[in-house]
Amino acid sequence: MEADIFEYHKDDNTVDAESFLGEKRKVIQPTSLKDPNLEKLKQALVDWINRTLKVEHIVVQSVQEDLYDGLVLHHLLSRLASVHLPVEDIALTSAAQIRKLELVLAELDKSLGLQDSSQIKWNIKREPRDSLGLHRQSIIHNKDLLATIHLLVAMVRCFQPELDLPRNVKVEVVAVEVSSGGIKSNVQTEVLTEENTSTAADSPSNTESEDPIEQLLKLEAHKVNTVKKAILHFVNQSMSAMGLQVADMDQQFADGVILLLLIGQLEGFFIPLCDFNLTPVNPSEMLHNVTLALDLLNDTDLQLSNVNPQDIVSQDVAATLKVLYALFKKHKEK
User: Fold this and answer.
1) pTM given for the model
2) Which of 289, 279, 277 is nearest to 313 (CA)?
3) For a Cys-Cys bond, which of 3, 71, 233, 285 suits 280, CB 3.0-4.6 Å?
4) Is the separation of the CB atoms in 207 and 300 below 8 Å?
């Protein structure tokens, strides 16, 4: 089993057996990397980062690949904790990146209120490198996915606790310890997010804290259809001035076109045709449209932090209903 672990990471060029020497490390099992819940959590964190840093025109695509040099974490620290460190914005060399990460992570640990080092799962580690002494190395800099997710989840819980991250996300990991005497390893379950982030004292009941659309979809089919008809009537009333009508709520919003036109009608602004694809022909163009629509809603203070644009493109009923219900709730009085 150990040979498989190191072979897997060698392909990724992230860690090798030598980097484990004298250290206790955890490696996510390849099967867990394909877990849909893990993918949803990663995407939720990427979306959160991009919303937070949108005004700075910083866009990330991967929590594993885009945070290792410290630039994104530095800007998040500045935006969320109002801590401005006197460090270079872009560190080009590996040594400069590690030094920057050490400073940023030290400040983040303070902001997160973590005094006990045993609770910190993304620590800078020190390991012997040569006769000149100790070389600082960060597991974040090594693009350690497990450590990076633990850090980002802790930041969300501290700075934006209302954000509804996917719950009860767990992965199988191999805990590895390498010494001159050999390799010790065992399989463990690592919890990335808890099953329920609120306690009984914080919330009168799980039903009250649950998303209303999630509650709706647990009801009988005829009750769901009644609500969908009410929302569809609201949509068609709003679109009547443009001579458009929606017949299939589950499919007609997937390409983002009608959603953008609806937002423009309700919010009273015109979206230039050059900003979106009026006749999208592939999933990429559809995703661009839907992402733009959700960004516009965020700009109008209609927060939809737990809606993934890809879900709408994939015709996920719950995701589409959440967006339309939020618009319905905001504008029904008008």
Assistant:
1) 0.52
2) 289
3) 285
4) no
Give the integer Cα–Cα distance in Å for 207 and 294: 26
Distance, CA of 219 to CA of 82 (rounded, Å)? 44
Per-residue pLDDT of 114-125, as tens digits, reads: 755 555 677 645
pLDDT band with cut points at 50, 70 and 90 for residue 4 = very low
Q: What is the pLDDT of residues 230-259, one digit of tens each?
A: 888 889 988 888 888 898 887 899 999 999
CB 84 within 8 A of CB 114: no
Instruction: Calculate helix-pair angle for 283-299, 257-267, nearest 10 degrees.
Output: 20
User: Within its chain, how far is the Cα of 31 from the centroid?
Assistant: 20
Which residue shows structure tokens 């068609």?
Answer: 236
Instruction: Tell me the per-residue pLDDT of 14-48, one tens digit each, with 9 for 90 and over.
Output: 445 455 455 667 778 788 888 888 888 989 999 88
Q: Are the beta carbons of 313 and 283 closer than 8 angstroms?
A: yes
End-to-end CA distance of the chain: 63
> CB of 122 within 8 A of CB of 147?
yes
- Residue 325, amino acid: Y
d(CA 138, CA 150): 14
CA distance 238 to 53: 33
CA 90, 61, 195, 207 torsion-angle sign: positive
